[in-house]
């Protein structure tokens, strides 16, 4: 007779006696609790995985929106530069027109004393001081111009601050500074 093999089942958690004991109940509770923890963890992972797609879409939408706004701001940058430059010029113009030093009056203070061979390059006025830059063919004309300015009662402290000449140019460049008398209203 052939021997029949019996399959023996091994049950580490016997149901009858062990389930009724305290250790069995604690072990059953721990296993069911860990099973629930694993199920909840898997649900959280699945939700995080699915929400990643939604967050990627939202991130791309926000990036596109920021890029569009950046292009709009950059399109206005040229206008902004022109606008600021215009504001600065208007500020200088307003300062010049509201200042008591008007160009016609300065022209009347300086040009009558100007020798014929002197060319003025610039006249700058700030806080009661006048700086004159110009060119002349001779030093005598510069000396005559300074002497003429000294003869006026409207300017004081007339100083020749710079004089220079270049070999390639027949002109002598000069710079004169002076102050306007306080009692004079220019």
Automatic annotation (TrEMBL):
One Pfam family here: PilN
Ranges that cross the membrane: 26-50
UniProt superkingdom: Bacteria
Keywords in alphabetical order: Membrane, Transmembrane, Transmembrane helix
InterPro entries: Extracell_DNA_Util/SecSys_Comp, PilN
The keyword Ribosomal protein is assigned to this record: no
Record keyword Repeat present: no
Protein name per Swiss-Prot or TrEMBL: PilN domain-containing protein
Organism: Candidatus Woesebacteria bacterium RIFCSPLOWO2_01_FULL_39_21
């Amino acid at each position: 007779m052939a021997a029949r093999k019996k399959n023996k089942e091994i049950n580490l958690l016997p149901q009858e006696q062990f389930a009724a004991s305290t250790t069995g109940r604690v072990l059953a509770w721990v296993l069911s609790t860990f099973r629930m923890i694993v199920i909840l963890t898997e649900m959280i992972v699945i939700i995080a995985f699915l929400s990643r797609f939604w967050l990627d879409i939202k991130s791309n939408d926000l990036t596109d929106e920021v890029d569009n706004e950046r292009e709009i701001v950059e399109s206005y940058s040229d206008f902004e530069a022109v606008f600021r430059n215009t504001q600065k010029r208007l500020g200088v113009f307003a300062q010049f027109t509201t200042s008591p030093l008007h160009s016609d009056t300065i022209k009347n203070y300086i040009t009558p004393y100007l020798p014929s061979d002197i060319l003025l390059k610039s006249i700058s006025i700030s806080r009661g001081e006048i700086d004159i830059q110009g060119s002349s063919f001779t030093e005598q004309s510069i000396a005559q111009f300074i002497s003429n300015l000294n003869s006026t009662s409207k300017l004081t402290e007339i100083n020749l601050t710079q004089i220079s000449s270049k070999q390639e140019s027949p002109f002598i460049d000069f710079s004169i500074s002076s102050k306007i008398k306080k009692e004079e209203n220019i």
